[in-house]
Amino acid sequence: MPDQRSKLGRPARLSRELIVSAALESDLGTLTMRDLAARLEVSHSALYRWVADRDELFDLISEVMVERILPTTTPTAEGWRDWLARLAWAMHDEFLAVPGYAAHVARPHRHNPESFGRLRDRVIEAFRAAGATPAMAQQSWLVFGLGVVQWLGARQAPHDMGPTEPRFDLFLDVLLRGLPTRTPAEHAHP
């Protein structure tokens, strides 16, 4: 019977898809690269040939998550709010389904510029469909993105949210009624 260690470290057993799949089945809040290598039954060094570090691992995970959550339809002037609601609920379902992911995304860090750039561009497209100027569509993206991600991060954080957890449907209703953003007249700058 071959020694188990002889199987370890063979790069042919790995792919980015397998790495992401194994990571998504873990608690990302505590997952280490060594844990991931053990889960994949490869050596630590073999994993590093595919993924340079934890940041690159989260970049790969974010690519998959953004692909899962983005609606395939285009936001329209009549349906932009429903489009954003579908997106927010997809974020809710997908981000919270992976332990530690929402909490990680909510923390200040460098986000994957490609995947989160696609997300940003699509949300800005929705606000442009609603009639927002390019500057206000950008501000609306910031409010929407930060609001949803922070709510999800707080929901997934290990601390207690109190006796009554906030309802996402109520939060989302209030958020979407206030968007797209507009410059308040009393605070407008010349």
Automatic annotation (TrEMBL):
It comes from the Bacteria. The keyword Transcription regulation applies. Coiled coil: none annotated. Keywords: DNA-binding, Transcription, Transcription regulation. The keyword Transcription applies. PANTHER family: HTH-TYPE TRANSCRIPTIONAL REGULATOR RUTR, TRANSCRIPTIONAL REGULATORY PROTEIN. This is TetR family transcriptional regulator. The lineage of its organism: Bacteria, Bacillati, Actinomycetota, Actinomycetes, Micromonosporales.
